[in-house]
Structure formats: C-alpha cells, structure tokens
Amino acid sequence: QVQLVESGGGSVQAGGSLRLSCTASTYNIACMGWFRQTPGKKREGVATIRGDGTSNYADWVKGRFTISRDNGKNTLYLQMNTLQPEDTAMYYCAATNRLWCRADAPVTGFDYWGQGTQVTVSS
Q1: 62-93, pLDDT tens digit by residue?
Q2: Which residues pair with residue 4 across a beta bridge?
Q3: How far apart are the first and last CA of the chain?
Q4: Which helix H or strand E contains 48, and what residues bound it?
Q5: For a 10 Å CB count at each end of the chain, is N or C smaller?
Q6: How is residue 64 annotated by DSSP?
Q7: How far apart are CA 12 and CA 18, in angstroms?
C-alpha cells in the first residue's frame, strides 16, 4: 500500500503562485500525477509524470503549471503560476504502477490517492 501526503496548498490572490508537494511512502512509482476537484464536479487531471521525467498536461494548463518529481526524495511537485480564481479546488496527488500515464487518464487508472490540499485563489 502506497501512502501519499500532500502539502503546500493555501490562499493566494489572482496572478500569484503556489507550489504543491506530495511525498510517497515508497520508491520507484511508475506514474504520479495531480488531479483537482471542485464541489459538484468530476475530479479532473492536471498533470502526470513518469519516473523518467516524461510529463503530460491537461490542455487548459497552457504552460502555467509545471510538474516535477524528485525520485531520491519520493516527492512530487506542482508549481502553479499565474493562478486564477477558477483554479480554486481541492488538489489531489495520485500514483499508479500501471503503464498509462496521462493527465486525461480516468481517476480509476490511479490506485493510490492523497487526502488532498485546498487551493483558494481570490480575485
């Protein structure tokens, strides 16, 4: 069983930045990613990254967010810049050892989830 613990959420004004972190309890996870969800909406993929650093982003990210991972520290990051009020959501870290590793993967394609960290962007 893999445990994921997120941190780094908070409140920021529009145009600001935040960096989310997610520490995993095990090494060498094939695919890790970030999803987000707002009340009443489906959880959506933000970005994913393989162990070799290959990343994939949702189209709407448009270069504002950068996903990265430090394999030596078992830690996943999401640098979020130029945040907008519509980015307000609960952000979840996810992981899987399956082969499919894309931001448009269904949530069922990820086997392990963190508890989430809230990001609030005010206008």
Answers
A1: 899 999 999 999 999 999 999 999 999 999 99
A2: 24
A3: 40
A4: strand 44-50
A5: N
A6: S
A7: 8
